[in-house]
């Protein structure tokens, strides 16, 4: 079957049965890795599939989410902001209130439990904005595991606060000087470390990308966000929302929110990528919204920003966490079948949304999450006041204060 | 008969082992590559692995990463490699050439287009580092129908069961990765390699060639005792890196590195 045949035969209800046994989401996903890693991935897949429906494992995960992370996170009605936009009611899923300040911890808690089961004494992680690095360093501290975090040298510069947080937590932060010195290069370096130390090291990937089974398990561990939001919507709104909005870099917070709603056909979904200077300028990190070609990077096939010769493109975004040329393979399929609309918000719109929410609701969002808010600003006024939008406020903005201050010309 | 099969059958008759150098095409600049290939043949290369530069070479250490950067800075593309092989074939019609690299450049130009071009310029085999046999359903038949060998890796972590699958899909030769790590990382342990090669002999008649960690004549000769071929990359690419300011001296240096290995292996 060709790619388009595969995709056109995929129904929305099929989306709950992805990936297939080999980790494919239609034509996307898979396990494109060098042979040395195949065994570790097979082992991880076996471990995870044996625990996925194990009540004891789930109970342990739920316990940690409740007592360590502080779940459930609230669904907050942003009344003042909604009124000022003059349209739909906006509800914020407050992942920023989680321990460590973002949705990332849901996944690291889950993968830490897997690391414990496999008995490996060392954890590695890649990080962009530093949220996943912090969340990994946190669970490593709690379990007494050694932790090395790879971070692009440029991101080390723009996220100094998180770098120091990771060091306080006992992790080693290794700046990556190769390539574009951002998230993709951090992931290359983490993969090189893993291939060398595969016997004693558990690699905690922070997003729904990478080789199978990572896109599956990272989605599963984050789906608690959507399950809660669905239940909270029914309780607080009295029905399901009309639309969901989440930012998409690799896409873990978006899949976490969207996945439990995937069969609710009346719930529209919007994934918001990093528009950088504007998709039309070419300086962005929006592979889906810009219709980038198909490609293979970091173990999976997906939409990938690359030049005509297949070299991966430089990306641009104000937000280190979204500054990535690819996207999780499940999003690629969801775009093709039309279940989710993928759009982009540029840096300027993102900053406006960041300031507006901070002023009007007293909530300072991460610049990543502000991409989702920027699209809420566009969408809400086109809807009626009796309609409802749930926005994933995936992280808090403390880490971005220096970035925004710099834009404002303030030095500390 | 494919040139790779032909070459290994000749070597077998002569009781010799294959010496397989790797260089990254376009490093330090595209105009030198074909000259380097001829120099390697003169120094005793039996097969040439020509690296396709990639922006994100995840399985490679710093030496080959930097080679990719140099080649990409000079604008080397996969279609330029095709021209290099075509030029090489004008005077050398017998030495097998294997393209080695990552999948994305091939995805981008399209599998069928790639296979057509590779076959028409005289490429003999393809080794895609991040494409295990499980992901080769689509490209596999396209290569096979054009008599291009699909070469796969086996690693120290590969289970017996997986090795059987890989052997069933592999053509040309089997590339045994001698150690856990990236290219150019460390020196291999020949006893350990021998131990891992033994069960593979029961699974396949393909020649078993060993790469990663071969630095000089001594390691090459050790490996040649237990394997059918010796693959050397970073040790050569290092010489290129050290002489980027005097590119006219590189071909001679590559020859002397490889000739030392050839002599040690044949002794």
TrEMBL record, chain A:
Listed cofactors: pyridoxal 5'-phosphate
Residues bearing PTM N6-(pyridoxal phosphate)lysine: 104
InterPro entries: Trp_synth_b_CS, Trp_synth_beta, Trp_synth_beta/beta-like, TrpB-like_PALP, TrpB-like_PALP_sf
Record's GO cellular component terms: cytoplasm
The enzyme's E.C. designation: 4.2.1.20
KW Amino-acid biosynthesis (keyword) present: yes
Domain of life: Bacteria
GO molecular function annotations of the record: tryptophan synthase activity
Annotated Tryptophan synthase beta chain-like PALP domain residues: 70-395
Keyword terms, alphabetized: Amino-acid biosynthesis, Aromatic amino acid biosynthesis, Lyase, Pyridoxal phosphate, Tryptophan biosynthesis
Keyword Lyase: yes
CDD domains, A to Z: Trp-synth_B
UniProt pathway annotation: Amino-acid biosynthesis; L-tryptophan biosynthesis; L-tryptophan from chorismate: step 5/5
Catalytic reaction equation(s): (1S,2R)-1-C-(indol-3-yl)glycerol 3-phosphate + L-serine = D-glyceraldehyde 3-phosphate + L-tryptophan + H2O
Class of enzymatic activity (EC top level): lyase
Family affiliation: Belongs to the TrpB family.
Assembly, per entry: Tetramer of two alpha and two beta chains.
Function: The beta subunit is responsible for the synthesis of L-tryptophan from indole and L-serine.
Protein name: Tryptophan synthase beta chain
Species assigned in the record: Vreelandella boliviensis LC1
Lineage: Bacteria, Pseudomonadati, Pseudomonadota, Gammaproteobacteria, Oceanospirillales
Gene (UniProt): trpB
TrEMBL record, chain B:
A GO molecular-function descriptor: tryptophan synthase activity
Listed InterPro entries: Aldolase_TIM, RibuloseP-bd_barrel, Trp_synthase_alpha_AS, Trp_synthase_suA
GO CC entries: cytosol
SUPFAM superfamilies named among the record's database cross-references: Ribulose-phoshate binding barrel
Pathway the protein takes part in: Amino-acid biosynthesis; L-tryptophan biosynthesis; L-tryptophan from chorismate: step 5/5
Catalytic machinery residues: 49 (proton acceptor), 60 (proton acceptor)
This enzyme's EC code(s): 4.2.1.20
Domain of life: Bacteria
Quaternary structure and partners: Tetramer of two alpha and two beta chains.
Entry similarity comment: Belongs to the TrpA family.
NCBIfam families per UniProt: trpA
Role description: The alpha subunit is responsible for the aldol cleavage of indoleglycerol phosphate to indole and glyceraldehyde 3-phosphate.
Protein name: Tryptophan synthase alpha chain
Organism: Vreelandella boliviensis LC1
